[in-house]
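Extended Data, panel c. Modelled sequence:
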Amino acid sequence: TLTDRARICSATITPYLNGTAKIQYFRGITKFFKYICKLETKSNNNMNLRTIKKDIEYVLGAFVEDCSIESDLEMYFPEMYVPGSSERMLLYRELDSIVTDDDLNAYRKRLEDRFGPVPEPGEELLQVVMLRRLGRALGCEKIVLKQSIMRMQFVSNESSMFYKSAVFGNVLNFVGTHPRRCELKVKSGKNLLIVKSVDSVT
């Protein structure tokens, strides 16, 4: 099936890509994914397009549908930076819909053109977009960053292919090479990765 081919393609290609190439690879797939979403909407949810969309979602790391973020860090646009409350709300909504690095960079440029350099709380907020995407690619349903400790909650379904994937293998390797900062544990039936000394999203 297309889904099987997508899985094989992703598993075969990505381990051999360096950091820059891997970013370009996923950026290209993300752009194509957005294009497919638009076509799907215009074609009244065509079955073939829905299938392709699911395949691309898998390649993008769709072990989970989304990754929610909770934090005690200051992540917002200060009133002194964006004075109008309605304007801030529109900016938050637009930011929440951003998918690619290019879109995020364009969004930041528009902010800087209109309001000046982005203050630290705003920069932290912008980085949440990348953190959510990274979390989703790593199979995280939720990331909590509080009191300088990051808790990453992985896929709830114990039988998920995620736990047999190269992605989870890389997580285990990371924990093995950073034993003082990282700990894998099960709490209340949830698989967690605890990472210490994380003071900011940036």
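The longest helix spans residues 19-42. This feature is highlighted in the accompanying rendering.
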